[in-house]
Amino acid sequence: MAKALIIGCGGVASVAIHKCVQNSEVFEEICIASRTKSKCDELKAKLDGGKTKISTAQVDANNVDELVELIHEFKPDIVMNLALPYQDLTIMDACLATKTHYMDTANYEPEDTAKFEYKWQWEYRERFEKAGITALLGSGFDPGVTGVFSAYALKHHFDEIEYIDILDCNGGDHGYPFATNFNPEINIREVSANGRYWEKGEWIETKPMEIKRVYDFPEVGEKDMYLLYHEELESLAQNIPGLKRIRFFMTFGQSYLTHLKCLENVGLTSIEPIEYEGQQIVPLQFLKALLPDPASLGPRTKGKTNIGCIFKGKKDGKEKTYYVYNVCDHQECFKEVGSQAISYTTGVPAMIGAMMVVTGKWNKPGVYNIEEFDPDPFMEALNKWGLPWKEDFNPEIVDAYPEEKESKDLEAELVG
Ligand code: NDP
């Protein structure tokens, strides 16, 4: 039986909280603490009455002292950081000061530069080890389940993995011309950055959306997908021995890309503050205020997501391919927990990751990415808690998209 302090009460946190309450055998007590306490109280009112005891608190997670005070008061076994990547380090500092386990779903980012690097959090390794506590980094879907899939593939299906392609497809439609499925600021920072992939020990940089492929996703159908940099590439390139190449692709519809390009062209996706009528404004934060709240997309989103990894490597001296993926239905998620599948596919692994740590299955002092733990209990829990996975061993799956580089000049298209 464990106590979890959950920081944040947005789309992802709401799903994780529903799942902790469903899993009352492990999560005996939770405290939902966020910047806006009324959101925590609303969720508590909705979920109260079950076996898990729920309390709420107001906290500014940028403030280490406030966090330490709250942790001393509630005495959790783990802090689940489901706020924003900007708060990762202050929450880790508070966990160190109170010797409490830590987990998150996204790597630390300074507010003024979109870096997507683990270095700041990896610098905490020795201090967490000395304090005898575990920090589990990136326990969402990607990063998260994609790392668990990689560790599972290596453990059960390969002697050596040479190639990994992570394929993230959202085949859902929310009916808006433009909206983001999770926090718009984080989402737009991610997709407007240069693409990057890792090959033969080097990072190869591409222009944003430069490399496009078409893939026929099981249960979703054919979609355009684009090569992006994604944070799990950094840790997987280090943690999967013998790897020759790892890439990440995400699907985007034409309407999303056209809107994004226009917003970029007028400067609305910039994270550089500008002065407007005597006030400092970050254009991307202003844009966030104009866009639909991702939490409001739940009732309108129809269709499915399909996220998985294609591995190619060797087993017993022979070439082998292996595709493992999860398909999730937006409407089914909404029926169960009142959220669309993007929040669902992140919130469920967040609960499972916290469960792995507090039940002692994944309890080793230090700071670890998810693929550094035994994948088996996590894979089992995915099937149990709403994200069942499927496998395909057909070698043709890796040849299903051509290898040539395809440049998509949206700018020229718009100007033309
Ligand atoms: P939301 O914007 O919906 O929620 C963020 C929550 O954090 C809000 O409740 C917000 O409070 C709270 N918050 C923000 N700043 C502070 C602060 N200083 N102190 C306390 N609380 C704060 O985001 P999402 O739920 O969509 O995303 C949550 C996290 O999940 C992000 O880090 C995101 O990058 C990550 N993510 C990971 C994925 C994965 O697969 N690994 C996929 C999708 C998301 P308020 O209500 O006041 O705004």
Write structural notes for this entry.
There is one protein chain. With 416 residues, the chain is an alpha/beta fold. Helix content is 35%, strand content 27%. The chain contains 15 helices and 18 strands. It has helices at 11-22, 37-47, 64-74, 88-98, 119-122, 125-131, 145-156, 184-192, 232-239, 254-265, 283-290, 330-337, 341-358, 376-384, 410-415; strands at 2-7, 27-34, 53-58, 78-81, 101-104, 134-137, 160-170, 195-199, 202-206, 212-217, 221-227, 245-251, 274-276, 279-281, 304-315, 318-329, 366-369, 389-392. The strands form 3 sheets. Strands 7, 8, 9, 10, 11, 12, 15, 16 and 18 form a 9-stranded mixed beta sheet that branches. A 7-stranded parallel beta sheet has the order 3-2-1-4-5-6-17, with helices on both faces. Strand 15 (304-315) and strand 16 form a beta hairpin. Helix 1 packs across helix 13 (341-358), helix 3 crosses helix 4 and helix 13 crosses helix 14 (376-384). The N and C termini lie far apart (62 Å). Residues 404-416 have low confidence and may be disordered. NADPH dihydro-nicotinamide-adenine-dinucleotide phosphate binds at residues 8-13, 34-36, 39, 59-62, 82-85, 87, 105-106, 140-144, 182-183, 186, 294, 346. Keywords: Oxidoreductase. Residues 140-386 form the Saccharopine dehydrogenase-like C-terminal domain. Residues 5-136 form the Saccharopine dehydrogenase NADP binding domain.
